[in-house]
Amino acid sequence: MHAAVITFPGSNREGDVARALKLGGARVSHAWHADYELPRGTDLVVLPGGFSYGDYLRCGAIAGRAHIMDAVRKHAAGGGLVLGICNGFQILCESGLLPGILTRNAGLKFLCKMQHLKVGRTDTPFTRLYRRDQVIEVCIAHGEGNYTADAETLKRLEGEDRVAFRYCDATGDTNEAANINGSLNHIAGIYSDRRNVLGMMPHPENLIEGLTGGTDGLALFKGLAA
Amino acid sequence: MKARVTVTLKNGVLDPQGKAIEGALKSLGVEGVASVRQGKVFDIEVKAADKAAAEAILRQSAEKLLANTVIENFKVEVL
């Protein structure tokens, strides 16, 4: 597994996600937003968290239109894997690779805390080492994670079982209080129609070692490299 | 020529910033504010032969970047 992590001006999690990918067993290259091509032999493109372009205009709006994104769209169209975390998810929505948009958290606050998620389908390269409906604890750190889409898109996402993760409580219950940022249907992450593109707001790359709080995120990176 | 693109949230889209501003206006004692929706204004200097060409450039700008039509509407004006 050869992963290419793309850095935009204002990305700040590229080092952490590269570390998680390596721990999972992947080989990691880095690419820059102004590049026109992905590194040769890229299997997986990773768009890291951060504040690309200072969140100007809308989160991910300018990065979503960067030169390298043409190469990412081409990679995805050919069935290549793409993972966007936090700002990376926002960029995927703005670039047209995933439907919908992430808007301001319903409670207006920037949320930086541990959060439980319920895992959706597990027949994808991203979640194959989890169990369906498994409750995992990772962390969130975002001000604009409130997933919004039109009714038709939402119906399609649910109908095609494309919700990858949902916000829930420690028991896996998706009650209103557990929907931390007000996302439609508690959506924390979604797949593209071919399930080769995953965007998620939470940070699995933070939870890869017991020393730093937990290992529930590691299975995602191990699954990708498996 | 001088032009303006105004981007506003579609009806029904939650606008927590607008709600917060609405609350602040009320707490300042400004009476008569029923509701607030926050939007964006882009003042753009356009190089175009005529108004129709300018409007086409503005629409293209809005569709390609300035507005996300999942949640936003836009209006173009040559001033």
Structure characterization notes:
The complex is a heterodimer of chains A (226) and B (79). Chain A has 226 residues and is of the alpha/beta class. Chain A is 21% helix and 26% strand. Chain A is built from five helices and eleven strands. In chain A, the strands form two sheets. Chain A has a nine-stranded mixed β-sheet with strand order 2-1-3-4-11-10-9-6-7, sandwiched between helices. A two-stranded antiparallel ribbon of chain A has the order 5-8. Chain A is globular and about 45 Å long. Chain A starts with a strand and ends with a helix. The mean pLDDT of chain A is 97. Chain B is an alpha+beta fold and 79 residues long. Chain B has a single domain, classed as 2-Layer Sandwich (Mth169, Chain: A), CATH 3.30.1280. Chains A and B meet through loops of A and helix 1 and helix 2 of B.
Beta percentage of chain A is 25-35%
- Strand content of the residues of chain B, in percent? 25-35%
- Ranges of chain B where pLDDT stays below 50 over 5 or more residues in a row are none
What is the CATH third-level topology name of chain A?
Answer: Rossmann fold
What is the CATH level 1 assignment of chain B?
Alpha Beta
Rg of chain B, nearest Å? 16 Å
Low-confidence stretches of chain A: none
CATH homologous superfamily descriptor of chain B: Phosphoribosylformylglycinamidine synthase subunit PurS
Beta strands of chain B, count: 3
Question: What average pLDDT do the residues of chain B reach?
Answer: 95
Measured by residues with Cβ under 8 Å of the partner chain's Cβ, the largest interface is:
A-B, 20 and 11 residues
Question: Count of helices of chain B?
Answer: 2
CATH superfamily of chain A: Class I glutamine amidotransferase (GATase) domain
Structural class of chain A: alpha/beta
Oligomer: heterodimer
CATH architecture of chain B: 2-Layer Sandwich
Major beta-sheet overview of chain B: 3 strands, antiparallel
CA-to-CA gap between the ends of chain A? 8 Å
